[in-house]
Amino acid sequence: MDGNDRMEIDPVALLGIDTTITLECWVRGDAAVLPTNTTLFEGMNAANQREVNVHLPWSNSRAYWDCGYDGGYDRIEQDAGEGILEGRWVHWAFTKNAETGVMRMFVNGQLWLTGTGKDNVIGEIARMNLGGSWNGDVDYYGDVASFRIWDAVLTAPTLAAYMNVSSMDALLDHPHADDLRGVINMDGQDGEATNQGPLAGWLHGDAGRRMFSPREAFL
């Protein structure tokens, strides 16, 4: 994704998500562009209020995770170095449990940041983009793979155990398999994401899709 590229996500698969959520994916930020203002994904309710959002990063090199709107959105944020923002593949995961008020960010299956007192329930998501903000005014610059949404709070051991798994069949023995709302593996063609479970998406822009070799994870 090089700006003005995004995957529009069909919100039907997200209905019913309210107190627990995990969003995870692999990203490789474009070192020639970052740090700058970016939006990895954003989901809004019918009133155009933010329900889920990640800046990875903003121009100040901080990573932001926003989730749940109630007069304002809950947020956690932290400075992030070049090593986890750009130039190489890094697995990121973002979780929230509105019942306990805990929000977390994970990097490569390890806990990276925790916030408490974050008890805004997640409202119904009416529109969502991966690779940019909901209205297209802030983009993401880099590569994205294996984007997954769960109606559950995944733990560090579970994230670490399955972060290198991409096929739907290989997720059948996942401890939260019944809570998987969908996967976008970026392997579709002609504006359609296929082989991804119940989560539908449509590509806008000219971002290319291709299979990545295992070696690229170490570049």
Word description of this protein:
- With 219 residues, the protein is mainly β.
- It has a single domain, classed as Jelly Rolls (Sandwich).
- The chain contains two helices and 13 strands.
- Strands 6-5-4-3-10-1-13 form a seven-stranded antiparallel sheet, with no helix packed on it. A six-stranded antiparallel sheet has the order 9-8-7-2-11-12.
Summarize the structure.
The chain is mainly beta and 219 residues long. It contains two helices and 13 strands, in the order ββββββαβββββαββ. The strands form two sheets. Strands 6-5-4-3-10-1-13 form a seven-stranded antiparallel β-sheet, with no helix packed on it.
Which helices and strands occur, and which strands form pairs?
Layout: E1 6-9, E2 20-29, E3 41-44, E4 50-55, E5 62-69, E6 73-79, H1 82-85, E7 90-97, E8 102-107, E9 110-115, E10 127-130, E11 142-150, H2 156-162, E12 180-184, E13 201-204
Antiparallel strand pairs: 1-10, 1-13, 2-7, 2-11, 3-4, 3-10, 4-5, 5-6, 7-8, 8-9, 11-12
Query: Under the CATH scheme, which class?
Result: Mainly Beta
The strand line-up of the biggest sheet is 6-5-4-3-10-1-13
**CATH level-3 fold name:** Jelly Rolls
Contiguous low-pLDDT stretches (5 residues minimum) are: 189-195, 208-219
Strand count: 13
**Shape call:** globular
By secondary-structure content and strand pairing, the structural class works out as mainly beta
Tell me the major beta sheet. 7 strands, antiparallel
Count of all domains: 1
What would CATH call the architecture?
Sandwich
Tally of DSSP helical segments: 2
CA gyration radius, whole angstroms: 16 Å
